[in-house]
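User: Predict the structure for this protein chain, please.
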Amino acid sequence: MNIFLWVLQILLALHTAMGAVWKFSNAEQTVPSLNAIPHSAWLAMGVLELFLSLCLVVPLLYKPLGYLVPIAAVVIALEMLLFCVLHLSSGAASYSSVIYWLVVAAICAFIAYGRLILNPIAPGLAS
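Assistant: Here is the predicted structure, written as structure tokens:
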């Protein structure tokens, strides 16, 4: 399970870092429903995503920072859910983006659950 969680974490970190780069390239224009997010907030989300990407993989080098993994996964999941709400409230007819964001949020939830309950990285994370 530990290896599976690490693979998911690394893939999520890559996904999130690519999302941050996407945000820096003014990509909000490609998903019209996300135009409700101000440009400055969009850029701040990109910076946050880069930080969260690091939080997902830094325990590979320093295990005591393992508590950052579930926090990062939950924040990414919340961001995906925010995108879903914005998309649905915009009245857009396509639901493919919502499905994509919900799948990413589910993977984030599994990583958080896995690192909190199933196979914690840092001591003291298990209850």
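The helical segments are 2-24, 39-57, 68-89, 96-118.
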